Amino acid sequence: MDIVLGIRTKDSVIIATSKAFTRGISILKDSDDKTRTLNDYNVLAFTGESGDTTQFAEYIQANIQLFNMRENTEMNSKAIASFIRQELAKSIRSRKPFQVQTILGGMNKGKEPFLSMIDYLGTRVDMPYVAHGYAAFYTMSLLDHHYTKDDTLDDGLKLLVQCNDELNKRMPIDFKGLNVKVVDKDGVRAIDFDEFTAKYKASL
């Protein structure tokens, strides 16, 4: 029941994940963060089996930080995406594969917005907008219709408001809202999405 989606604009990348942590039909937590900040310009969002997701995300985060310390330089977004894909491809051929779907959002070399979707089979696709879980069923048609490559961060957040409204209308469970993070030339930061939504709807 997790929602994980990403939108790449011309100057940033937006990553949104549902706040609800579910087990079966029960909501165990209403403030879950399904992302990990890997370095100054890259954030990883994930969904899947609860134990696998946490272990895999922390493994990737630790290895990226180790690389930064050893090489005295930060991995760029494309290199991180290749590393994640390689680890998932190795995992699927092992006795204990990770059941994890991931989205990597970042600024490649601190300049170029980058968004990549990598599934548990090690399949990687770099796209302008991506979604995992139930978000894909309900939001892809909206993104197909309204997304343009010239969208700014503000345009992307407005599009995310439309996606959120559609999910609230059609999802069979309460996903407790969205955690939203933005990656731009200033790095990774969290956005108060409820406040942005209220201001945007008040201006209509």
From TrEMBL:
Localization terms from the record = Cytoplasm; Nucleus
Q: Which GO terms describe its biological process?
A: proteasomal ubiquitin-independent protein catabolic process; proteasome-mediated ubiquitin-dependent protein catabolic process
Among CDD domains, the record links this protein to:
proteasome_beta_type_2 (cd03758)
Q: Which Pfam families match?
A: Proteasome (PF00227)
Q: Which UniProt keywords apply?
A: Cytoplasm, Nucleus, Proteasome
Q: Which Gene3D superfamilies match?
A: Glutamine Phosphoribosylpyrophosphate, subunit 1, domain 1
Would you tell me the Gene Ontology cellular component terms?
cytoplasm; nucleus; proteasome core complex, beta-subunit complex
What is the role of the protein in this entry?
A: Component of the proteasome, a multicatalytic proteinase complex which is characterized by its ability to cleave peptides with Arg, Phe, Tyr, Leu, and Glu adjacent to the leaving group at neutral or slightly basic pH. The proteasome has an ATP-dependent proteolytic activity.
Q: How does it assemble?
A: The 26S proteasome consists of a 20S proteasome core and two 19S regulatory subunits. The 20S proteasome core is composed of 28 subunits that are arranged in four stacked rings, resulting in a barrel-shaped structure. The two end rings are each formed by seven alpha subunits, and the two central rings are each formed by seven beta subunits. The catalytic chamber with the active sites is on the inside of the barrel.
PANTHER family with a match to the protein in the record: METALLOPROTEASE TLDD (PTHR32194), PROTEASOME SUBUNIT BETA TYPE-1 (PTHR32194:SF2)
| Stated family | Belongs to the peptidase T1B family.
Q: What is this protein called?
A: Proteasome subunit beta
Q: Which species does this protein come from?
A: Ambrosiozyma monospora (Yeast)
User: Taxonomy-wise, where does this protein's organism fall, top ranks first?
Assistant: Eukaryota, Fungi, Dikarya, Ascomycota, Saccharomycotina
